[in-house]
Amino acid sequence: MNERPERWTQASVHPDMWADPDQDPRNSEGPSPDGEPATLADYLTNYRLTLRMKCEGLDAEQLARRSVPPSTMSLLGLVRHLAQVERGWRNWITDGQPLPKLYGARDADFDGAVADPAAVEAAWQDLEREQAALDAELAAHPDLGERLGKQRIAVRELQLHRIEEYARHCGHADLLRECVDGRVGQ
Fold first, then answer.
1. Angle at 45 between CA 155 and CA 77, to 5 degrees
2. Which of 61, 67, 118, 122 has the fewest CB atoms nearer than 10 Å to its CB?
3. Is residue 12 in a domain?
4. What's the structural domain count of the chain?
5. pLDDT tens, position by position, 92-101
6. Domain span at residue 148?
7. How many angstroms separate the CA atoms of 61 and 123, rounded?
8. What is the CB-side half-sphere exposure of residue 70 using CA atoms within 13 A?
9. Three-class DSSP category at 148
């Protein structure tokens, strides 16, 4: 890809940012959350919002575009991937039969990210459903030291792993988005 878009931002007060702080849904006035569970939940919520912000305003073709070759990543692929890993984490904490993969074979989350509005809608629905399902399961286990599933993973470890996964992929989303339309990260 030889043609690169010019860098731009919607922020006017801080032109090197994605959005001005007073319009950033991740910013909150007042004190930070009290306690470890609330702090972990706040970080996860903010990374989830960041992913949504990185995808806002793009059409299906732009979301499915593999804009950082030779990587097969796309913004839509990241949404699908995160839906898949949310489901996978549910499998970590179950004692029963694992849920089937959402998209099939290895890398199908990225390979199946096609420029189709129905595929985009389905990916967001999958992500929201899988996030809500795991959130609900973990809400039943408020003790962060409790160990769950066949592998006996601590709730704290799983929550930190979720934050790490979203944070890493939000970094990827920064680069992917900038290559799609020049919008810079924050």
1. 95
2. 118
3. no
4. 1
5. 998 889 999 9
6. 64-181
7. 14
8. 0
9. strand
